[in-house]
Amino acid sequence: MVFRSEEMCLAQLFLQSGSEYDCISELGEQGLVEFRDLNPSVSSFQRRFVSEIKRCEEMERILGYLLREIQKINISVPEEDESPLAPPPRQVLEIMEQLQRLEMELSEVTRNKEKLQRNLLELTEYTHMLKITRTFIHSRSRRVKVEAFERMLWRVCKGYTIFSYAEVDENLADLDTVSMIAYFRMSREIL
């Protein structure tokens, strides 16, 4: 950390384009340098390094998203005492790809979790409706007619039917006969 009372000097660096990243990275990690913009009139979009800045901003956004999701499920993130060293440019691209993949996977997991929660809520609602209404039909029919009976109930009830059938436990003369039970979820549309 540089204090105001410390002796300072103003210097101008000219770096070759191949070594600029490594030199600036090393100087930044020392923490003894303050950089000044010698081209304040140039728009940030006209600068050579604008794509690197956008990449870093995108990585910062993704890391923020991942951190928020981690904190939602109460996983502690260890704090680092020191800032990590600046990665080389190739490694920055690899890190970016990994972060994008993690973001995509996590958002897909989050969507699937929400969908499963909605399905659970809907199934719980159906279960409660079945316990409350106790509406059912019990009949015997031939196996070949079970599908037709199910379609007919589905159409009559406008899709608000939970249908299941079970075979009769007793030995019957006609082995093609099954016992059917159809459960209905009552709603305003049916009423």
TrEMBL record:
Coiled-coil ranges from the UniProt annotation: 92-126
Subcellular localization, as worded in the UniProt entry: Membrane
Entry-linked Pfam families: V_ATPase_I
GO molecular function: ATPase binding; proton-transporting ATPase activity, rotational mechanism
Family: Belongs to the V-ATPase 116 kDa subunit family.
Lineage: Eukaryota, Metazoa, Chordata, Craniata, Vertebrata
UniProt xrefs under InterPro entries: V-ATPase_116kDa_su
Domain of life: Eukaryota
Membrane topology: Multi-pass membrane protein
Membrane-spanning segments: none
Keywords linked to the UniProt accession: Coiled coil, Hydrogen ion transport, Ion transport, Membrane, Transmembrane, Transmembrane helix, Transport
Function comment: Essential component of the vacuolar proton pump (V-ATPase), a multimeric enzyme that catalyzes the translocation of protons across the membranes. Required for assembly and activity of the V-ATPase.
GO BP: any one term: vacuolar acidification
Official protein name in the record: V-type proton ATPase subunit a
GO CC annotations, alphabetized: plasma membrane; proton-transporting V-type ATPase, V0 domain; vacuolar proton-transporting V-type ATPase complex
